[in-house]
Write a structure and sequence with these properties.
This protein is mainly alpha-helical. It is about 70% helix and about 0% strand. The chain is flat.
């Protein structure tokens, strides 16, 4: 089977669009407050963790269930997710 390569013009376009997405994300993230950035980070990390634990082939649960699970897990681990726990009484 012959090796297929991406044409240079397409590779350049893919790289340009990836740079544009990264720049846009950095601008939005940079405009957030410190607490908002911490919440985004906590949600992203927890989403990744929960995604890697999800059994292959199983249906994905609804957003409301996932949100509730992530909040519960963040509250259960206050040292790892301080942004979610910042306003909670000790």
């Amino acid at each position: 089977m012959p090796e297929q390569t991406i044409p240079d013009w397409l590779a350049a376009d893919i790289a340009r669009r990836a740079d544009e997405r990264m720049t846009a994300a950095a601008e939005v993230y940079g405009a957030l407050t410190e607490r908002e950035r911490a919440l985004v980070r906590d949600a992203a990390v927890m989403g990744y963790v929960q995604g890697t634990l999800h059994p292959r082939g199983e249906k994905h649960p609804k957003d409301s269930w996932v949100t509730a699970l992530v909040v519960q897990e963040c509250l259960a681990l206050p040292d790892l997710y301080p942004a979610m726990n910042a306003d909670r009484p000790a």
